[in-house]
Amino acid sequence: MNMLGKIGLATGIFIVCAVSINAVQNAPTDENLEEKLVNDYNVYALPLPEKMDFAGEPVPLENPDIRERMDRELLVNTYWQSNGLLLFKRANKYFPLIEPLLKKYGLPDDFKYLAVAESGLEYTSSPVGASGIWHFMKATGSEYGLEINEYVDERYDLEKATMVAAEYLKKSKAKFGTWTMAAASYNAGVAGMNKQMDRQNTTGYYNLLLNDETSRYVFRILALKEIMTNPKKYGFNFREKDLYQPIPTYKVKVNTPVDDWAEWSKPYGINYKILKLHNPWLRDTYLKNASGKEYYVEIPEKGYYTL
After folding, report:
1. Fewer CB near the last or first residue (10 Å), C or N of the chain?
2. Which of 12, 296, 244, 10 has its CA nearest to residue 135?
3. Known CDD domains for this protein (predicted)?
4. Between helices 64-78 and 81-104, what is the axis angle to 10°?
5. Which residues pair with 131 in a beta bridge?
6. Per residue in 7-16, pLDDT tens?
7. Binning pLDDT at 50, 70 and 90, where does residue 295 land?
8. Which of 108, 104, 132 is nearest to 120 (CA)?
9. In angstroms, rounded to a whole number, what is the distance separating the alpha carbons of residues 271 and 264?
10. Which long-range contacts (CB under 8 A, 24 or more apart) does 102-105 make?
């Protein structure tokens, strides 16, 4: 949504423009297309799945404009190979953390692909200031109770940010009636979706004419779901050892000021960099905590880093 940031980096477009005469002459038949998609480096049109859904809600692929929009996002995200491989690698690290949080807070599992679309599963900040894996704007995060200041930014706390994303999306679902509209409102905002429904006198994401970003948003999520669920079908090949692995951690309670996080980290066998890798919500080298608020700092188990 506009207040939660732009698709931005996560939307990057890679367009393959050149197809050799030989590739055209040897275009695959329906029977051998799937095999060739995996085993050669030519560029082919992609067959759309017969059925698709988001959170159990069907995509009306029988409509020609819907098919074209879906086709576009499948092509863009299939042939942006380097980014695709990075998403698979990061998903192996972060999906095991995100999936139980979605279940805990009452969101369908498909919303993990919304997080992929927003941030590429990186603790990034967009050009307009949307931050964290769920890409909240500062005002939205504060509205939903996240602490955001020069010392702590809980938009970068995966569990707390997932909880807030779930609260926002469930409210949107209650208002609009579908998870698909809730996802679209995450990009365009509740007010933005209401405005377009009133102007166009219709409801439902697939019935609305929307700005380019929001009109592509749900289709990008659907494309990511399709590709990441069926990697070999779309030519992505990797081994388990190629993927990024989650690092076990334990939590340490902090309820006092911390003068120097680098010094604080030493007894745990880590340095400031490693502390920040596991606690990106810490925004400075020290913590003012006059109120005695309780924070829980994640510490990696021993043996995973060499200093």
Report:
1. C
2. 10
3. MltD-like (cd16894)
4. 110
5. 125, 136
6. 343 444 333 3
7. very high
8. 132
9. 9
10. 102/162, 102/166, 105/162, 105/163, 105/166, 105/167
Fold of 2-36+51-241: Lysozyme (1.10.530)
Q: Ramachandran region of residue 96, left (φ > 0), alpha (ψ -120 to 50) or beta? A: alpha
Residue 282 DSSP SS3: strand
How far, in whole angstroms, is CA 24 from its chain's centroid? 36
In 3D, which of 219, 213, 297, 229 has the Cα closest to residue 87?
229
Tokens of residue 59, six digits: 């995509």
User: Which residue is it, tokens 């993990």?
Assistant: 112
Two tokens, residue 248: 């076990």
**Residue in 76, 102, 71, 105 with CA at minimum distance from that of residue 7:** 76
SS3 (DSSP) at 112: helix
**Residue 122 structure tokens:** 């990186």
DSSP E strand boundaries for the chain = 53-54, 57-58, 249-254, 295-300
DSSP code of 79? S
Tokens of 47: 């067959």
Predicted confidence band of residue 32 (pLDDT cuts 50, 70, 90): low
The answer to whether the CB of 71 falls within 8 A of the CB of 46 is: yes
pLDDT digits (tens, 9 = 90+) for 151-191: 999 999 999 999 999 999 999 999 999 999 999 999 999 99
Paired residues of 287 in beta bridges? 258
| Helix 111-119 vs helix 81-104: crossing angle, to nearest 10 | 130
Amino acid, single-letter form, for residue 282: L
The residue among 60, 64, 40 whose CA lies nearest residue 50 is 60
Could you tell me the pTM of the whole model? 0.86
